[in-house]
Design goal:
242 residues; Phosphorylase Kinase, domain 1; Aminoglycoside 3'-phosphotransferase, Chain: A, domain 2; four-stranded antiparallel beta sheet; 48% helix
């Protein structure tokens, strides 16, 4: 796939930054202008990480899996298209943080997002012959853009059991505030059912273990980590959907 190479050097792209940087624990990610348009620049700590993510984006884009289209790569940075929309985390919070019952429109929105996440993840795993996780499969790393789910941030992709991604998704959803509600459990069930239907797998037991493992991992970064660890033990013992 032919790459569109920005005309500006990385230093110039930095100087043209629009607004503030995106939230990122490891990298510098920002919007900027080039050739009259808006692009996103992601600067990595090393060239290997940049090359890995650029390669994954290129393969996904070539096979029409929704990701930001990669445009060019510098030594430690990639330039990609800037997509409209907000994160899935923001879309879910707009429903779950509101007081009162969930409306019919909101319920339809949740169903669409759950199905879309399951479909995106199943397509990604199939694209890489179920041998590569996407890594860090949290809701901040997916966009709702023009009615589609779009995957972001692949630097933690690794050759592991792909059920890890689904477990990370479920653990992140369940631990969004308010935590571990029935609505979130239903959402995870819909997401996993859609994923398993498309992949031909039924791995509920493995998903329970993967979700518990992810909860324990994320507990170390949160002030409510003790509750996450306790919930992980229950899920591992009784099952996620028991």
């Amino acid at each position: 796939m032919a790459m569109v190479r920005p005309s500006l050097k990385l230093e110039e792209l930095r100087s043209n930054m629009l607004g503030t940087e995106f939230e990122s624990r490891k990298n510098k990610v920002f919007r900027t202008t080039d050739q009259g348009g808006t692009v996103v620049v992601k600067e990595f700590s090393d060239s290997e990480a940049a090359s890995k993510e650029f390669s994954i984006l290129t393969r996904c884009s070539a096979r029409s899996l929704p990701v930001p289209r990669p445009m060019s790569i510098h030594t430690r940075a990639i330039i990609m298209e800037c997509l409209p929309g907000g994160t899935v985390a923001e879309a879910l919070d707009s429903v779950w943080l509101n007081e009162g019952p969930i409306s019919a429109d909101e319920e339809a929105k949740l169903r669409d997002i759950a199905a879309g996440l399951g479909e995106w993840l199943a397509s990604y795993h199939a694209l890489f012959d179920f041998g590569l996780t996407r890594g860090d499969a949290i809701m901040k790393n997916f966009l709702v853009s023009s009615g589609r789910i779009v995957g972001l941030d692949f630097e933690e992709a690794s050759e592991e059991d792909v059920i890890r991604d689904l477990g990370e998704m479920c653990s992140n959803i369940l631990s969004m505030h308010p935590m571990f509600t029935d609505d979130k459990l239903v959402f995870c069930r819909r997401l996993s059912v859609r994923y398993f239907a498309l992949t031909g797998a039924e791995r509920d037991a493995d998903l329970s273990v993967a979700t518990a493992t992810a909860l324990r991992h994320y507990a170390s970064f949160r002030t409510d980590g003790e509750e996450l660890v306790a919930r992980a033990a229950v899920i591992e013992s009784d099952g996620l959907f028991s």
